Amino acid sequence: MAYTSDIQIAQAKTLQHIKHIAQKLNIDEDDLEMYGKYKAKLPLYLIDDEKVRKNNLVLVTALTPTPAGEGKTTVSIGLTEGLNKIGKQAMVVLREPSLGPVFGMKGGAAGGGYSQVVPMEDINLHFTGDFNAVEKANNFLAAIIDNNIQSKTNNLNIDPRTILWKRVIDMNDRALRDITIGLGGTANGVPRQDGFNITPASEVMAILCMASNLENLKKRLGDIFIGFTFDNKPIFARDLKAENAMTILLKDAIKPNLVQTLEENPAIIHGGPFANIAQGTNTIIATKMGLSLANYVVTEAGFGADLGAEKFLNIKSIFAKLNPKCVVLVATIRALRHHGGAKPDEYHISDISKVAEGFKNLEKHIENIRKFNIEPVVAINSFTTDSIKEVNFVIRKCASLGVEAVLSKGWEKGGEGMIDLAKAVVNVVEYKASQYKPLYNWKSPIKDKIEIIAKEMYGAVAVEYSKLAQLNLKRIDRLGFNDFAICMAKTQKSFSDNASLIGRPEGFTVTVREIEIAAGAQFVIPILGKMMRMPGLPAIPASENMTIDNNGVISGLS
After folding, report:
1. How far apart are CA 144 and CA 142, in angstroms?
2. Per-residue DSSP letter, 416
């Protein structure tokens, strides 16, 4: 049987006009801001807080992933299809893909197989321009900062050595990590060290995902902390009068994007922060929009539950007053083999002993989710190399913990392969759901909040701080930001800050290298270990396998 790629499956689908998808949500065509036939922006006035409180939110996360990922987006989309098949009105709310991973190592992020959102090529490539708007707003602020340093009028006396704001680009480009700008003479600015982050790591992206409306977006953009003056006074974006222009650049990007699944169910895609260096979840506006329009909303958080889900539950859910009623933990047999000690060339070799050892990682994630007073369901994302013996072992082990584990075949069969998972999720939502609780109080001291996450979520025995991190803590205290949330930056490959410690490591200490401030987003970012906010391309980028023909048909995008 010939292999059919994700893009071939997506291109074979005859899409419904987006106005017909909107009709399923009782949205009038006049309320749509269309981007062609198959994409539309939704106005914020469709959000209904009473419906948000009443309807059901399901979060999809995962165990600690292998480098290839374990299929959270595919499961999220497939679960939505499955819920609709059993008679529930459901929609999926996802993040937008970044061009960095699309052209780099992972490829696209629109699901896979028969559990995809479409038009797949558009979603993965530029989409409706939201990332471009974030990039422009971010870099506008950077230009205003350097212009103020150069200018003789309205000069704020900014000390260039203290500037924390970096430029961004939505591409993996290691050569831009550390650069020198302003060379070439006095007309070209003041020389200083600078650098680029990737767009999903921008605080503007974080702010877009935390904002509740346009006015709140503008307030948060004005609160961005820039650096200090020569006489040690803090400078914010509002001091540069940058917030209005930045908001203007984001006036369309703040509106969620409506598309469809392969089975013609509604899907919202909006915002795209990474979870290892940012909060890793779609916008609050998108999630609330989904909950205003559908009885069941399935959303996902990036990487393992120690990263994206922790931030979803401790940051986003608190600020937005959300009440997630079930968490789906995605697991693959290959990831369990990995955490049991299998090498990459052994990931596809059946080995019950490695699966048993690797189960310790999944068990820790199950324990962690229950700390939020939420009951998990385990979705075993099916691969052809899984053995029945291994799958049944995981199902039995989960059952011994009082957790239902379900074999999920969304990639192969779409919604038909996700009916059992949908039923398991509904069972939790309708019979076992309770009011979730966060892990910490935002008003606790910064070090206490960091320690709670490190010990409760990661299993660390202690937290150490570098001299720079200790200085950062003093700066946070001086600026009055102690009641901010914590957005940890940590490797996605381990519970610890050491990527090589797989499984369920014990007895380890995590080290906070430095702590960044995202005042507009209202969180601080402790950086554990060596985390890069501008990735590089692999030796053979995914882009090398992509082609486009004379008719504009794309191949090789996954």
Report:
1. 5
2. G
Handedness of CA 265, 90, 311, 329 (dihedral sign): negative
At CA 339, angle to CA 338 and CA 344, rounded to 5?
20
Length of the chain: 558
Per-residue pLDDT tens digits for 27-49? 999 999 999 999 999 999 999 99
From residue 466, alpha-carbon distances to 69, 302, 463, 515 in Å are 31, 27, 10, 10
Which residues are tagged catalytic? 72, 74, 95, 106, 275, 303, 383, 411
Is the per-residue pLDDT at 1 higher than 50?
no
DSSP assignment string, 386-399: --HHHHHHHHHHHH
Distance from C-alpha of 542 to C-alpha of 6, rounded to nearest angstrom: 14
DSSP label at residue 44 = G
Q: For residues 4 and 556, what is the distance between their CA atoms, to the nearest angstrom?
A: 11
Q: Which helix (H) or strand (E) holds 452?
A: helix 446-452
* Mean pLDDT value of segment 469-482: 97
429 phi and psi angles, rounded to 5 deg: -60, -45
446-528: CATH number: 3.10.410.10
Q: Note the pLDDT tens digit of each residue in 115-126.
A: 999 999 999 999
pLDDT tens figures, 437-463 = 999 999 999 999 999 999 999 999 999
Chain centre distance of CA 388: 32
HEC profile of 476-530: HHHHCCCCCEECCECCCCCCCCCCCCCCCCCCCEEEEEEEEEECCCCEEEEEECC
Q: Is the pLDDT of residue 492 over 50?
A: yes
Q: CA 520 to CA 224: how far, in whole Å?
A: 5
Domain ranges in the chain are 6-128+253-431, 132-249, 446-528
Look at domain 132-249 and name its CATH class: alpha beta
**Which residues fall within 8 angstroms of residue 392, CB to CB, at 6 or more apart?**
none
Q: To 5 degrees, how large is the angle CA 280–CA 130–CA 123? A: 80
CA atoms within 13 A on the CB side of 74: 25
Q: Which two tokens stand for residue 102?
A: 């699309």
Q: What is the pLDDT of residues 370-382, one digit of tens each?
A: 999 999 999 999 9
Tokens of 421: 């998972």
What is residue 108's predicted lDDT score, i.e. its pLDDT? Answer: 75
Instruction: Give the SS3 label for residue 26.
Output: coil
Q: What value does the CA radius of gyration of the chain take, rounded to a whole number of Å?
A: 23
As its CATH architecture, domain 6-128+253-431 has: 3-Layer(aba) Sandwich (3.40)
